[in-house]
Amino acid sequence: MDFTQETYNLVIDSPGRINIIGEHTDYNNGFVLPTAIDKKIQFKFRKNNSPSICNVYSANYNTSFSFDLRNIKPSLQQWENYILGVIYEIQQLSNKLEGFDCVLESNIPVGSGISSSAALECGLAFGLNEMFNLKLSKISLVKIGQRAEHNYVGTKCGIMDQFASVMSKAGHVILLDCQSLEYSYVPIDINPYKILLLNTNVSHNLASGEYNLRRQQCEDGAKIISKKYPKVNSLRDVSSEMLLEFKNELDTVTFNRCYYVVDEKERVLNTVEALKNNKLNIVGKNMYKTHEGLSKLYEVSCPELDFLVDFSKNYSKVIGARVMGGGFGGCTINIVHKDFIEQFTKQASEAYFKKFNIKLTAFEAMPSEGTSIVNN
Ligand code: GLA
Question: Which of 249, 339, 340, 368 sits most deeply, having the most CB atoms within 10 A of its CB?
Answer without folding.
Answer: 368
